[in-house]
Every structure is written in C-alpha cells, then in structure tokens.
Amino acid sequence: MSILVNSDTAVLCQGMTGRLGTHHAWSAIAYGTRIVGGVRPGKGGSTHLDLPVFDTVAEAVTATGADASLILVPAVNAADAMIEAIEAEVPVIVCVTERVPVLDMVRVKQVLKGSASKLVGPNTQGILAPGQCKIGVMSTVHEKRGRIGIVSRSATLTSEVIAQTSVLGLGQSTSLGIGGDSLHGIGFVECLELFQADADTDGIILIGEIGGSEEETVADFLKSEKFDKPVVALIVGRHAPPERRMGHAGTLTVFGQAGAESKIEALRAAGAHIAPDAHLVGETMRQALVN
Amino acid sequence: MYLHEYQAKDILRPFGIPTPDGDVVSYAKDAYAVAENCTASAYVVKAQVHAGGRGKAGGVRKTDSPAKVQEIAEELLGQKLVTEQTGPDGRTIRRVYIESAIDAAREIFVSMLVDAQSGQIALIGSQEGGEDIEALAAQKSIRLERLLISLDDDPDAIEFKEFAQRLSLEGPQTERAAALFRSMYRAFVELDASLIEINPLAVTTDGELVALDVKMAIDDNALYRHPELEDLRDEDAVDKIELAAQRHDVNYIQMDGNIGVVVNGAGLALATLDLLRDAGGEPANFMDIRTTASSMQIARGFDLLLSNSNVEVVLVNIHGGGMTRCDTIIEGIGISLKRNNKVLPLVIRLAGNNADYARTLLCNYGISFIDSENLADAVERVLALVRMEAA
C-alpha cells in the first residue's frame, strides 16, 4: 500500500482550467492518477481535459465522490481554496501554491484544527505513490514502487533521494513534501505515524534542513514512542551561508535559529540513522535495513 | 521586508503605540532643528541601519544640546557602523533618527510573531529587556512569558492585562500595557507583519510605557495587499546582487570561494554546499532557482554568477521537476554564456525531468562541459578542476 493515497484515490483539481492546473492535471492523468474533475468558480457545467468542471468543491465532491484535491491556484486565492476543501471535508488536500501569506495560513490552520482533512503543503511538490497515484508537480523519472517512505521539506532533494533508493532497488511506498513554509499542514511526526502504520513501508527517510524546530520535535517523538522501523535522517545546511541577521537580535536569539548540527545530534540521540551527506542517503537506509 | 526603526515607529504611532517624539534626518544640517523641536532637553541620536547591536557599536548616542546632536549627526552620517551583526564590512549610515531621551525606570522585552508550532500569533515577553537580552538568552537565564492568540478571538477579550501582570507590571501600568499590546496586535494583523519587537519597552519614572526601539518586518508574501509599504524598502540596505537576483526569481547569496554553484531548490542547494565544503571546496555563492523562474530569468541569475571574478569553476546540479525542467535551466545558462562570451570549466549533473533533452541542448549550444552522473562524482570532478586551476 502507501500512505494518504492509493490507486483508488479519486482526485479533484482546484484551478484545473488554469495553465498550471491544465498541465499538472494532464500529467497526473498520464501517470494513471484517477483525476475525476476540476473546480473553477464561474466555469461550473463546462468540461476541461474531458472532465467535468464544478463551481465549488462541495458540488464536485457530491458529484464525483472525490477523496483528494490538488490545489493549483494563485497565492491570492490559495487560503480560500484550502478552506473550501477543508469545509467540504475532502480527506486529503495537497496545496502546491508558493508564497501564501503567513497570516492566511494562520487562518487555514484554525479551520484545519479538528477537521476531517489532512492538508499537505502549501509550497510542496505533493504526494507520489509510485505506480499508484501522483498528486503534485514532481517529475516521474526516477521513482520505483517499493518499501521506503520519504518525507521532506525540499522537493529537489526528495527527487535526489528517490533516485538513490530506486537505483539500490529499495523503491518507495510513498514520498511527500510537507512544504517549505514555516506554517504548513501535515508535519514530520504525523507522516512518521502514518508510515509506521503502513504495512508496506519498511523504513522511513526524513529530509530536513536548518531553521524551524520540526526536526527537534521528531527527535522527541522518536524517543518517547515505540518506533520499530528504521528512520534515516538527512539534515542539510551545515555549511549554509551565514544567516542574514537584520537587527532582530532579541527575538532571533531567544528562539534560536537552529543550526544543522543540533538537529543532527538530537536525531542521532533519538536513534535515527544519520546520512553523512546527500549522496549517501539511499546507502544509509540499505545498511539500516540489513542491521 | 525589514523596516528601519524610524519607519516602524512612524507606522506604529497611529496605532496608539507610544514612542519618544523625534524625526529622521539624512543631512547633519537638519539635525539641530529636529533636536530643538524635541520636547525633552536630552536627546538620543540613533544610526538607522538594518542591524542589531547598534548601541554597543557606538551607533546610539545620548547628549544634552542641539549643537551636540548636530555634531554627532555629522560624525555618524556617511560612516560605516560595524556591529556584532553586520560583519567586518559594516553598514553605511545614511540616516540618523533623533528623539527625546527617556528616563527608564525599567526595561522590558516584548515581541509578536507567528508561532510555527501552534500556528497562532504569539506575544512573547520578558521582565528584563534592553541590550542584554542576547546575553541573557545565551545563558538561558531568561524567563519568557507567552500568550497565544487566535485570529477568531475577540480582540477585547484577549488576556493582555493578565499578560502584563506576568511581566510584573502593576497598577495603572497593566491597563496601559494591555492597550499597547492590543495596538501591537491590531498593527500586526492589519499590516501583515511577520515580526514586531519592542525592546526595550521602557517603564518611565512616571510609570508611563514608551517603545524605545522597534524592530519590525512585513511578510513579503503579503506585500501585494500593502503596496504603500513597498516604498519603505531601503534598497541601499540590501545586497545589490541579491536584490537583482530576487527580481528574477533566483535566490542568490555571494560567498567567498571560487566554485560557482547553480542548483534548483533550496534544499538541494544547501546539500550541494555541504558536499563541496566537506570535500574541501569553497563555494562562491548559494543559488536556488525558484520553480517559477523562466529561462530568461535563469540567464540573469547566471549573469550574476559570471560577474563574480572569483569564480574559476562552475558546478551545475539540477533535478528537473514538474515545474522547472532541466532544459529550462540549461537554456538559461546557454543564453548567459553566449551573451557574456565566457568560457569556464563546467561540471554539469542533470537528473529528473528532461535531463537527456537538456544534454542535447548543451551540445547544440556548442558548450563543452563535463557530464557527471551523480552528486559525489560531480563534486569530485569540480575539485579536480579547482586543483588544476591552482596548479
């Protein structure tokens, strides 16, 4: 199987009639994803890519039974699109849109809390379950169906790690990006829980980087929970250019701009296998599975 | 987008945040008149640069006559201020802010920001504020109070008063502080701020609260809602090359080394720098081509890299995705190399979407390059080239 999506997942595309929406809905269909319709206010009743277009997400869900939505709308409309999908109780929502204002995300997170939806993103490449379902904008060149789960903050680094695990024959059950923004939907810990529960995932690769504190939260989680699948972590940014400190002395110092080393140490202490560099992630997982 | 102290104070004053009276000057000749207009008989002259630690670096001076204010303004303007945050080059002082000096009985730290963990707006405060906040934080001897605010909360019902008590404010001060925090919150939401830090917030000998220094940032992603704030951007204060790159959807930070680096995606870019440095290489820059960049924009980004005379070798590491395909990036690099008429040793590693097509494009452009199939190999080849250049 996989997490969040599988070959039966019926997917809507919010913003399907736009240029990006058309391109990525089309490439998802070409990959074999069950795209069942699009949403574009004002264009309800028309068809696009031979699929029905609806005015609202709620109408689209009723008519198609969709259980996931891919959001490809401009940043100005992204928060409303996410909220509409959450209120229509779409189980899995993937928002690719970048540059969503942070206060818009505060609003989205409020609606998300206690809802039936899982939000992936924004500013994510999406979810890819090789051979089953692609909801997002990632390339499909190197992926291979297999038994490793990948969760990441970076799209191109995910692509790198997918290539490595495929070459080694490990393959992927599911890969997904939690998004590059400080405020996003699903996080590392929730993804680890999903992978832990997935019978077809043998190990998890976690790709993190400097900034924020989500990797530290993972370390706390791994320490406190009984987690029996190997976790390989790659944390990049050990040699990042010095951070531009524009006079926010107090707040930044008080909250710390977590460097790569402290994240690596926290994860190592929590039992994660640390990939020494970006080239050796697949190999680190291969060894972790042998031991 | 970061604001200067004087800009932040001008913006926050109408929201009801008390600040000392004062004004900004770009020419020392105007300093005397500004000081004369101040209500107090002592003055503070403050260098307006985007860097903390100004006080300890001599960028904040107190004095007691308009004539001395003018002298200090003359001394500061045009000088480079080197603080613990600016790096050795410092920052040129183009403006000074002159304001009434305030006698503070106590100094507090308060800051409002979006808390990533809770997804809510957080008001943070400490009973101790002022310049020593960094030292206190480093010693972990700072006690922080925190109030999480939901956008749904009725602003009148938010427990700002109780928060003020937690900062050991008493009597009428708690009401004043609650009003100030409410103003901060209103400004934060209305202006799409990502940070409003008041440090120090002075409690005067009369028990009044005054914001002595303010650091404020606006969420760049929300600037489209506030076109009037865009004018506050101080382009002198931003690295010219970085700014030029950002206009072309490329994040670019110049570094000291000799290996030019072209990567798509911030994570892969950081990973590439880590690999280069671990192997003993010195990157000349950080580059992250954003997914929305066109080949023309990528060409401009590559122009910037070529304009750095320290660059001896270039490493291109691209994972073509659904948004940015390998050929788009190679097209950009090709255009730039052609129009700059430059020949540099190039190690190119292409993977993902349209990698083979991009290789064909490179050959069609007549660009000679070393084709590398994986990260470790690419780094090794680049370092071999660097050693050859050095020999």
What would you note in describing this structure?
The complex is a heterodimer of chains A (291) and B (391). Chain A has 10 helices and 14 strands. Chain A has 291 residues and is α/β, with parallel strands linked by helices. In chain A, strand 8 (126-129) and strand 9 form a beta hairpin. Chain B folds into 3 domains: 21-101, Dna Ligase, domain 1 (2-Layer Sandwich), CATH 3.30.1490; 104-228, D-amino Acid Aminotransferase, Chain A, domain 1; 239-390, Rossmann fold. In chain B, a hairpin with a 4-residue loop joins strand 8 and strand 9 (120-126). In chain B, helix 2 crosses helix 3, helix 8 runs antiparallel to helix 10 and helix 10 crosses helix 11 (326-340). The model of chain B has no long low-confidence stretch (mean pLDDT 92). Chains A and B meet through helix 1, helix 4, helix 5 and helix 8 of A and strand 8, strand 9, helix 4, strand 11 and helix 9 of B.
β content of chain A, as a range? 15-25%
The CATH topology of the largest domain in chain B comes to Rossmann fold
Total count of domains of chain A: 2
- Kindly report how far apart the N and C termini of chain A lie: 24 Å
Question: What is the ordering of alpha helices and beta strands of chain A?
Answer: EHEEEHEHEHEEEEHEHEHEHHEH
Q: Structural class of the secondary elements of chain B?
A: alpha+beta
Could you state the oligomeric state of the chains shown?
heterodimer
Number of helices of chain A: 10
Task: For the largest sheet of chain A, list the strands in their spatial order.
Answer: 3-4-2-1-5-6-7
Per CATH, the architecture of the largest domain in chain B is 3-Layer(aba) Sandwich
How would you sum up the global shape of chain B? Answer: elongated
